[in-house]
């Protein structure tokens, strides 16, 4: 039998992340095709649910920024590829715009972002983020969790902009925020970085990274449930 050359072999090899997405398909679909997302896409969304999501997501993003800062710190210490930092920094820059966007969106919907009490699912998710901020958590685990968090929003909101969707005009801006092609490319860049580090990781780190990705997907489902008032 002829030996495949290396390039051929690399091409046919399924990536670590792709393997996990196949293995945990149902959970991934649960996080990215949630009834709340379906309701945005088909136009039946309840305004009070959307407002609740907006208020709670603002609190989440406040906690997300320090998490991303620790990912940046770990990239600086643990990765020898300068593009890692460039990609993470571009993510931080877009989070800066995101705060301006949240304020604009809040006034459009008559929502106040100050004095909002975080709900349980949000507190749980923020606490999980905080656990990932520890210096004990390896860069591979943190960058892959980061990829998963961004990708759930990208995949969910891009679905609301696809042909055949019936997303109300006043919600298109929100869907664009995470569903636009540039954000999609940024998620792919994060995926390549995560994959690169996973390929080199020990079995133990890989196992813990897979567990963190599953945690992210479960917290995302709970977050959408909370927005719909189901918790
Ligand atoms: C809950 C949640 N997950 C992911 C993102 C993406 O940044 C977000 N803004 N909120």
From TrEMBL:
Gene3D superfamilies with a match to the protein in the record: Heme oxygenase-like
Domain Thiaminase-2/PQQC stretches: 22-227
GO molecular function, one term: thiaminase activity
Single Gene Ontology BP annotation: thiamine biosynthetic process
GO cellular-component term (any): cytosol
Keyword match Disulfide bond: yes
Cross-referenced InterPro entries: Haem_Oase-like_multi-hlx, Thiaminase-2/PQQC, Thiamine_Salvage_TenA
Pathway, per record: Cofactor biosynthesis; thiamine diphosphate biosynthesis
Positions in coiled-coil regions: none
Enzyme kind, highest EC tier: hydrolase
Keywords: Disulfide bond, Hydrolase, Thiamine biosynthesis
CDD domains the record matches: TenA_E_At3g16990-like
Catalytic activity: N-formyl-4-amino-5-aminomethyl-2-methylpyrimidine + H2O = 4-amino-5-aminomethyl-2-methylpyrimidine + formate; 4-amino-5-aminomethyl-2-methylpyrimidine + H2O = 4-amino-5-hydroxymethyl-2-methylpyrimidine + NH4(+)
Family statement drawn from the similarity comment of this UniProt entry: Belongs to the thiaminase-2 family.
Protein name: aminopyrimidine aminohydrolase
Source organism (scientific name): Coffea arabica
Taxonomic placement: Eukaryota, Viridiplantae, Streptophyta, Embryophyta, Tracheophyta
